[in-house]
Amino acid sequence: MLLDAGAPLLPHMHRVGVEPSGIDVVFLTHFHGDHTLGLPPFVLHRIFVDKPRTLTFVGPDGVQERLESLFEVSWGIDWKPVMLPRFKARYVTARAKGQVAGYRYETVKLDHGTAGSNGYRLHVGSKILAYSGDTEPTAPLERLVDGADVAIVEATGPGDVFSHMSWEAAAALKKRHPKTRFVFNHLYSGTVAGAAKDLQVVEV
Ligand SMILES: [Zn+2]
Ligand SMILES: [Zn+2]
Fold it and tell me: Is the pTM of this model over 0.90?
């Protein structure tokens, strides 16, 4: 599974040894560009290089329209006649709970920007993986991470971070959920002692 799809997705997958053809499902939290603009090259690769295999997109309301318009902007007049007929895709609007591509999930609506963001609780074997995408540190985020084995949560920067979570709020969240292993991402500013490097593969 892929959790959001910022750019440059495809070269990074190759560099860390993740096979693009091995992805069955992409969970999208929201449609901001830093979470979706890796998809056009990934889809191109899927259509022309990988064997045809269905790719499922799970996302907020309008997921099909939003992604198809992104692909049409990306590939122009070639999208509909040349590429779309070869693209095996399925679009699923995330419900409160469901099952897709063999994964059970629950959706938690988080506070981010005007449209909000879908956080997901994903059942991977016997473990629960919580993934926030972008969010303010409000009550729904507590529900998202509560009881999760692993939580991948944004922590954008120090101090006042508009419509995101600060490092200070992230530290407090981690303290309130001591049994959960937190992986913080989406940092835009500075470095933190012990932070992962770009393209580092982390065993969880
Ligand atoms: Zn965002
Ligand atoms: Zn973002």
Answer: yes
Please give the CATH topology (third level) of the domain spanning 1-94: Metallo-beta-lactamase; Chain A (3.60.15)
Ligand at minimal distance from the CA of 7 is 2
Buried b (16+ CB within 10 A) or exposed e, 10-19: beebeeeeee
- For residue 31, give the nearest of 99, 94, 104, 76 by alpha carbon: 94
Report which bound ligand comes closest to the CA of 31.
1
Beta bridge partners of 184: 153
- Domain map of the chain by residue range? 1-94, 96-193
Task: For residue 51, report the distance from its CA to the centre of ligand 1, in Å.
Answer: 32
Domain 1-94 shares a fold with domain 96-193: yes
Please tell me the class of the 96-193 domain: alpha beta
**Surrounding residues of ion ligand 2, Cβ less than 5 A:** 34, 134
Q: Which two tokens stand for residue 16?
A: 């860390």
DSSP-derived 3-state class of residue 171: helix
> What pLDDT digit, counting tens, does each position of 86-144 carry?
999 999 999 999 999 999 999 999 999 999 999 999 999 999 999 999 999 999 999 99
β pairing state of 103-110 and 117-124: antiparallel
